[in-house]
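Now for my pick.
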Amino acid sequence: MEIHAFLAQQFEAERPRLRAVAYRMLGSLAEAEDAVQEVWLHLSRCDTSTISNLGGWLTTVVARVCLNMLHARKSRREESLEASGSFTVTGDERESDPEQEMELADSVGLALLVVLDTLAPAERLAFVLHDIFAVPFDEIAPLVARSPTATRQLASRARRRVRGRATMQEADLAASREVVEAFLTAAREGSFDALLTVFDPDVVVRLDDPLVVHTGLPGEIHGAAVVAKQVVGRAQAFWACRAVLVDGSVGVVVARHGRLLAVLDLLIRGGKITAMTAISDPVRLRQLHLAVLDD
C-alpha cells in the first residue's frame, strides 16, 4: 500500500505536464484527461522497478496513447464524411467546463490548436514533443516507427505548416491583420456601429456550405448594414474565432475548443472588408492551408 501511495504521489506531480502534452496533442480537455487517466492505469499495472526515468516514461506513454486516439479520430472523421457528405464534428462531445476549456485554449493559443489539428498524427506528435516539450528525436522516433532523421523531417514539415508563409507584403499583412482584429473585437462586443467602420458599404458575404445548397437558403448577403445586423445577432459565436493565415492571407478560423468548424476567407481593400466567404464544407476545409500568425 505504501508503494502504491508513493507511486500515486509521483504521478500526481507529473500530471500537469502530462495533461499539457495530451491537450496539445488532442485539443480537447476531456480527451486529454482520459489520456492521462489511461497512463495512470498503465503505470499502476507495470513493473516500476524497470523504469529508470519516470517522467520520460510517462511522457512516452501519454504520447503513444494520444497518437492512438488521433488515429481513431481520423478514421471516424473519414467514416462520417463518407456516410453523410456534410461536416460532422468528431471526437469527445461530452460536456466539460466551457470556461475552463476556453481558458486552457487561450493559454495554448486557439489558432495553434486549430492548425495542429490539420497535421497528420505523426507530424503533430513530432512537433508537439520536440518543439514544445523539447523531447529528443531519438526518443520520439520509436513512437512514430521512423528513424530519428525521418522524425526530424516530420517535425520540420509540421513546423512549416504551423508557421506558414504569408503571400502579402509585410505592411499589407500588418494592415490586414489590424482590420481583422478590429472586426473580431466589434463582432464579440456586438457593436453595430463599429462593424460598419470595418465593412465596405457594398460588402458581400458568401456561404460556401453544402447545407445552403440543399435547404435553399440564400447563399449571399449584401450590404454593410445587413451583414452587421447578422453579425450582431451571433456575437457570442465570435469568441470562438481567431485571426490566422488562410492560404497566405489574413483570415479567420471558427473553432470550438481547437476543433475547426469553419473558415472565414476575407477580401480586404482600402482598409475595409469587401467580401467574406464562410467555408464549412469539410472537403474545402482540408484543401486550405492554415497557419499561425506571428505575435
The first helix runs from residue 2 to 26.
